[in-house]
Amino acid sequence: MGEALTARRFLPGAHLVLELTSLTLKARGVVAALEAAHAAGVSARIVSEREIAYKAWYAGRGGMGHLLASAAERSTRVRIGGCQYFVGMTEPGNSREPGEGRRDFGYHWHVAYVLDLHYPQPPQDRSQRRAGQGAAAAEA
């Protein structure tokens, strides 16, 4: 879908709503795709951002170190493709947004994002709008 948007295979004015987490932003391919879309003129807007608990122990016994935020990523957002995101997960008890229950040592923390991706439409002047309306009426 992202490739179709970047290649302009959607109708003008189309939006792609994408949900991902700060865990996803540790993947180089995802970061490269967001950067390529931005370079191609795709506009990205964060619609929603929320820190959520992650039961890493529930995902299995495999290593999770590659998903941990670096020291800088724990407290500083990273610019990717025109937006600023938290990247990776924090260790149990180290929420980025401390609050009630956020010091629970049973959960890692990561951030969920909802993005709106689209090509900005250039504004039409009044003469173009009238011409377009006249052509539509003639076709009807």
Can you walk me through this structure?
- The structure is a single chain.
- With 140 residues, the chain is of the alpha+beta class.
- Helices cover 26% and strands 26% of the residues.
- It contains four helices and five strands.
- The chain has helices spanning 2-6, 28-39, 71-75, 126-139; strands at residues 15-21, 43-54, 78-80, 83-85, 108-118.
- The strands form two sheets. A three-stranded antiparallel beta sheet has the order 1-5-2, with no helix packed on it. The chain has a two-stranded antiparallel ribbon with strand order 3-4.
- A hairpin with a 2-residue loop joins β3 (78-80) and β4 (83-85).
- The longest helix has 14 residues, at 126-139.
- The two termini are 33 Å apart.
- The relative contact order is 0.24.
Fraction in helix: 25-40%
Largest sheet: 3 strands, antiparallel
Number of strands: 5
Helical run tally: 4
Name the beta content range.
25-35%
What is the residue-averaged pLDDT? Answer: 83
Order of helices and strands: HEHEHEEEH
Q: Within the largest sheet, what's the order of strands?
A: 1-5-2
| Helix-strand makeup class | alpha+beta
- List segments where confidence is low: pLDDT < 50 over at least 5 consecutive residues: none
Overall form: elongated
Report how far apart the termini are: 33 Å
Radius of gyration: 20 Å
Write the layout of secondary structure elements.
Blueprint: H1 2-6, E1 15-21, H2 28-39, E2 43-54, H3 71-75, E3 78-80, E4 83-85, E5 108-118, H4 126-139
